[in-house]
Amino acid sequence: MIDQKTVQHIATLARLYVTESEAQEYSRQLSKILGYFEQISQVNTQGVEPLVTPTEIECFWREDVVQKELSAEEIVANAPEKTGHLFTVPPVV
Amino acid sequence: MDLNTATFKDISSAVKTKKISSLEVSQFFLKKIKGHDSKLNSYITINDKVEDEAREIDTRLSRGEDVGPLAGVPFGIKDMFCTKGLKTTAASRILENFIPPYDATVVARLKSAGITVLGKLNLDEFAMGSSNETSYFGPTKNPWNLECVPGGSSGGSAAAQAARLSAGTLGTDTGGSIRQPASFCGVVGVKPTYGRVSRYGIVSYASSLDQAGPMVSCVEDAALTLEVISGRDERDATTSNHNVPAFSANLKEDLRGVKIGLMKEYMTDGLDADVQKTLDLAIEAAKKQGAEIVEVSVPLTAQAVPMYYLIASSEASSNLARYDGIKYGYRTPSSSLAAMDLDQFYQKTRGEGFGKEVQRRIIIGTYCLSSGYYDAYYAKACQVRRLLSEQYTQAFKQCDVILSPVTTSPAFKIGGRISDPLAMYLNDIFTVATNLAGLPGMSVPYGRSSGGLPIGIQLTAAHFDEQKMLNVGYSLQQTSPEKWKVANV
Question: Is this structure's pTM higher than 0.80?
């Protein structure tokens, strides 16, 4: 069961602003979805190594050389607010 | 040459031998888009430089340069791929005005092979959805019935291709997002083996599941595209150095000696009658081409949907943490940043920038990864994932290719499932296991419902066995009543 308060807590962890009515809606939907997820708990996985990368990938090496790919202008071009080559951010301290 | 039914090979040879210019080919499709796409809403952005790109190809050819195997072939690109200088939105408000400074590797490889880019295709927001209804830019319509969904998340690619508003398209597939819309719209869609194709420059959704692939009009075009985009990329450490075969030259329709597996778990009674009929016809056709039919079993596919949504949402919650309203993308409008603390700023930016389905998946994922739940959910799902993958390995000792339905029914009505997320998730019941196990899969058009909607057949092969899968697809295509059907819109 995932109640409204839990939804609000998780939303805060995920840095999402969720209104009360959204929290109510998500609580109902997520309870149903998580309830459905429960069925995997029935599978016996004792001693099984988790699988993350589904195909065997060999590591490969490349020369460790500096490559300039983007200019400072290109990097800040999409910033919603900027000052010169700097990103403008809200006060953090 | 009728550009509505011309293969990539037809187009590129005609362009190379100057029977038609690259410019004329691109203009043909551009005109179709401008004339018809208002009904489908398949394109988010039209590339206003496409004619320049086409002229450039003509110029290079007139200088005697070898432009490549896709010379002059116009592509629509799902708006999940970064395209240099061309807006890339992931169908989200949060990326509404994002103009990438670089091309995704796959896009760069297609451009090197000679394509022109018609524009960027609609999708479910961040590829999260099975109906194209979660797009910030409005739903795409199915060209065979404008009241129905085209499927998702690559719904714009499928719809545009079915109506031939592109010669070819690119899609991405995290849990069926190429194969399901390909089936719903009647086009050929291929999801390669995980690691076959670079993910560099593709907007990340679930990194251990995402793959890019072609959504095109015939198996030959799919094979040729796959040849061009496959192979190791220094910029994606999960790409494989497996040899890339000449998929298109190797295609053969003779299936003697090929074992086709029918998976017990997918041969359910719950199938729509038209889907069942299509499946039966495809099996008969494969037999006639010489294939041997065997039964295989992958019992854990029964757990694939919960496993998939758990893993995909967890990875998404982590991947989407990058959207912070600082480096790029949407930022909450505020008269004064000083009035807000940093957390409020992030929360408002992300709360306003992401749509509901994306928020739902971020919340599910954050919950499943949070302290106290990680072992029971994410770690457990990854363990079951290994067992599922091992069961597939066993199944592919008994057969070369698994043949199955793509979905339980043809395309559903717009609005039919959007209010019930779980009902929407269950739509992916036959497609998600392929991604969990990292296997290649494809959908080939093979039938049609009594209501006139296309139905595809799904083929799945072992890791890096795309050639066998493409051959079965090619063979089915020969007898398919749905070969080269173009929707008039």
Answer: yes
